Amino acid sequence: MIGLQVHESPIKKKLERDQTIMVERDWSSLPFDVLTVILERLRWSSHPSFALSCRHWHSAVPPFYPAWITPLLLNTARVGVTNLRYYSPYYHKNFEVGSDGGGHMLGAARGAKICCGSGRHLALGMSSAALDVDLLTGVVHKVPHVYKTMFDFIIYGDDACKMFGIDAVVPLKVAYVNQDDDGDWEDWTLTEFDINGPRLIPSPVTNPVIHRGLIYLLGEQGRLAVYDPCKHEKGFEILDKPMNFGFECYDSYDIYMFESDKNKLMVILIGQRGAPVHVVTLNENTMEWDKVDSLQGRALFTGTQASMMKKAELEWMQNRVFLPIFYKWLETVHVDLVSCDDELAFIPKSFSNTDYSTANEDGENCVDMWSYKLGQQEAAREFWGAEKMDYSIWIDLN
Is 41 domain-assigned? Predict the structure, then answer.
């Protein structure tokens, strides 16, 4: 009986060899270009966890600074007309975005006043018009103006598709404008002029604040004027209460109003050379200002037209007030502002000689230059030289 010899086909051998290689190769050996493609499809907030998987995966994660961790101080001080800088209290660095990354809007807005921000949108005021700027793309939309001079205050509505303009020259006047589906802004709608309308001397350094759907304008002594957008024709109404802040308030105070992260209407008063500092909140039952002794682990960012309070994860930032001071300058990282799945991050243009540490954990330099511990009794020397400028504003890109 003759035996038959069975030969395995070359194709079968190759399949078995490939399967063996796949079993032996684990996820840590994925090609670098594959990891890059995966990262492009993940949110920025997932990158740190991705980098912790193994050394190979960590090498594929590009250096980046999340732009949503704390509010950023957007400013144009000491920068050319084509660049923007964002100061981050978390990293204690300036991130400079050039003309190719959303900063070129300043070329078309020289001399403009920064009025307010809403997410990635920034409103600028000029003598002939207002401008709506997309900070990510640099696209500028012109908003028609109805006055020979700009409004005293311009703020966005609950989103960046509506603006309100407020003329604080007595009597108070208010207007609104909407953005259409094509991104163009319509004409302003004004309240009728009334020579006997409401009169209030507003705090000159703080924007009106939207609180529970109403717009509040703060007077220098704690009085409030309120406007209901649903009753536009009625304009502003000055409330009977509160009548004052509950303590003697001098003209030397800078007064800033904001809505806290817990939807409370609050005010910070900063005395000459940084002391004293008072924080009050509106008791909406009694309509009086109540003194606040602690920020309850939060940080307050103020000193510009827009102020905001946020929960602080780092201990050194808790119960601190942050103000812009420009007599000292910080390390500047040249970056692109990039979006990934609705999250924004600063991507350095050059990776050499750059420290990509997660944060300044101890905060020593930041404390000396930028912040004030609530309850501190002595005059805060770090406030000396604090600037109130039309070219800086706190914004939240979260």
Answer: yes
Residue 238, CA distances (Å) to 118, 199, 222, 242 in order: 26, 8, 11, 10
d(C-alpha 273, C-alpha 381), whole Å = 7
- CB of 205 within 8 A of CB of 255? yes
Domain count, the chain: 2
* Amino acid 208: pLDDT: 94
The yes-or-no verdict on residue 369 having pLDDT over 50 is no
**φ and ψ at residue 79, rounded to 5 degrees:** -125, 145
Inter-residue contact 395 to 122 (CB < 8 Å):
yes
Q: Is the peptide bond between 71 and the residue preceding it cis, with omega within 30 degrees of 0?
A: no
- In this structure, are 323 and 359 located in the same domain? yes
> Which 8-state DSSP code applies to residue 380?
-
Give the Cα separation of 276 and 268 in Å (integer).
11
81 shares a domain with 49: no
Residues 123 and 40 in one domain: no
Within-domain flag for 9: no
Give the pLDDT score at 80: 44
124 near 114, Cβ under 8 Å? yes
Pair 88, 218 in one domain: yes
Q: Same domain, yes or no, for 40 and 140? A: no
Q: What is the mean pLDDT of the chain?
A: 77
Which of 157, 155, 158 is closest to 202 using CA atoms? 155
Q: Which long-range contacts (CB under 8 A, 24 or more apart) does 34-41 make?
A: 35/60, 36/60, 40/340
| List of residues 6+ apart from 10 with CB closer than 8 A | none
Last residue of a domain, one of 6, 38, 60: 60
* CA–centroid distance for 56 within its chain: 35
- β-sheet with 140-143: strand ranges across: 113-118, 121-125, 130-134, 140-143
- State the CATH number of the domain containing residue 166: 2.120.10
What is the model's pLDDT at position 356? 44
**Per-residue pLDDT at 115:** 87
Query: Residue 118 above 80 pLDDT?
Result: yes
